[in-house]
Amino acid sequence: MVTQTAVRRRDPASASVPAAAPAPPLRPVAAAPLHAALADPTREAIVRLLAARECAVGEIAAELPVSRPAVSKHLRLLESAGLVRFRSEGTRNVYALEPAALAALRDDIDALWRTALARLALDANNRRRAAPRRTR
Q1: SS3 for 75?
Q2: Cα–Cα distance between 29 and 113 in angstroms, integer?
Q3: How far, in Å, are 12, 56, 87, 94 from residue 91 at the CA level?
Q4: Given 21, 38, 102, 133, which is the most exposed site by the fewest CB atoms within 10 A?
Q5: Percent of the chain having pLDDT more than 70?
């Protein structure tokens, strides 16, 4: 299970500055298998091709520097992660992206981004308050 704990480091000079509430811990990442499936450059390239259009294995293999069996292996992994789906058309399997999986990835990245921005805002706010004031 992946979780995040807030660690607050403060300058001793800013002891009188009230600290903001810690960010809530991240929930377990359901999108982790999706991230892992995209970690391979070939699989990422396949997903980018499928983002443009549905493709059969042969069409994907023609666009990449890998064999058809290698493309099939990558597609099986992407399918098991839930990123792609296929339908049979005669002897061909036509692959397409799974919109729900892409939405889960987007939501996960958005949550990470919100947490990172909140942390940066908290740090900037604490530094601004802790900065010594100039007297004239």
Answers
A1: helix
A2: 14
A3: 70, 10, 10, 10
A4: 133
A5: 74
